[in-house]
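Sequence in, structure out. First:
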Amino acid sequence: LPDSGETAPVKESEPSERPTVPTDISAAEYQQRADDFFEELVTRVEHMQEKRPDFDLEYAAGVLEVSVTGKGTYVLNKQPPNKQIWLSSPVSGPKRFDWVVLGEGLHQKEGAGTGDWIYLRDGTSLTDLLRKELGINLDVNDDAP
């Protein structure tokens, strides 16, 4: 109230678990992490092809296309200038994923974080999205340096 001398209580913001900025990594680290991700993804999709004839894989010139009969085509590619992986999904649409180290906040042990490719607008993990939409389980949440 302006004349009473009392101030309105300040509402503290709740801590957010969702990352809002990418982790700062070098171009060389980006290339290594992106290459490792694509290598693991290609291996997993090839294994899926053996069990599921509705999966088709094409990987050329750094662009990975996974076609799923009745669902559509997923396109993933590296974007080195932005240090991102871009995905076009017939289910969830286009997204740009940044490398983010998770679990190294103020109250957590240094070096205890893990990393993943995260869509910063809504916090979606690329590995979770591929698991949900394609049934591909990737083990790429490796320890962060």
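Second:
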Amino acid sequence: FHIGEREEKCIIEDVPSDTLVIGKYKVQRWDVHTHGFLESAPGLGMFVTVSNPHAEVLMSKLYGSQGTFSFTSEISGEHIICLQSNSTRFIAFAGSKLRIHLDIRVGEHFFDESAVQAKDKVNEINLRLEHLIEQIHHISKEQNYEREREEKFRKTSEETNSNILWWAIVQTLILISIGVWQIKSLRDFFISKKLV
């Protein structure tokens, strides 16, 4: 994505509790002379701020023009990841465009390939099994989180349906009472005018 030099861009990531999130980014600055983005942006860094669903800051750190950040979610929900350049130019002069390449991996535990290339096949199989077990735990967490969300949605739907039913009953009672009142008023009117 593209942002201005002093602009902040936030991304919402829905993450289950106790899950590792790893983000990797690279910043490129627009070059007026070549009319393209430079391969790197020396001297330019990024402030990375991560907030949990309760708006508590989990992480706020300054990184270079490319880097990797990670955090572990404590509670499930929408986490907000914000990126902003550390440009020191005044806003009036900071008109340069930046291109940000961002890769966010949720629940990934990177597999150490150097350890896999060990000559001992038992260790290799053991490492692969541990990696598979971690993936199974992650999938289990994701499923539990989806169940929680589905249960909240179901409760909200049931409450809404219940409210709609009671509202319909109240409306019917109001209409019936207004109808009875109108009939009584019309009858009293006719009696007072001696038409009946």
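Remark: Residues 90-94 have pLDDT under 50 and may be disordered.
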